[in-house]
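Now for a concrete sample entry.
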Amino acid sequence: MKFQVPQFIEIEDKIFGPLTLKQFIYLAGGAGLSYIIYAILYIYIALPIIAVVITFSLALAFYKVNNKPFILVLESAIKYALGNKLYIWKKVDRKVISEKNKETSQASVFIPKLSDSKLKDLTWSLDINETATPGAKEMYQEYKKNKV
């Protein structure tokens, strides 16, 4: 048996001349809303509002952002604006922190800073594991003698 496989399924059918059903609905809705605004409001007030409505309906019907319809971009923008946002990191000004911690730092215990040579001694002793490396203690004693 032979079956015919449908092709071009992503392309919408042109129903109303060169327009698809969605495009026709967007344009007809924009035209209808523009007429209602024209009938209700004064012409000087209605013209700017009608211009915005017509521009919006034309964008919905024809404008694409990165080959995506404008309605999807609009939907994503609304979801982002109204949805919850998770802030992982916020930069905090260091001046504000130092002013807040001045009082607490004076009351805290004094911790001496390590000098450069003490820091090297500490890293050398931490890097060498006496149980894993035979003769590590002797190497460390020799290092201290040569350093002085």
Q: What stands out?
A: The CA atoms of residues 1 and 7 lie 19 Å apart.
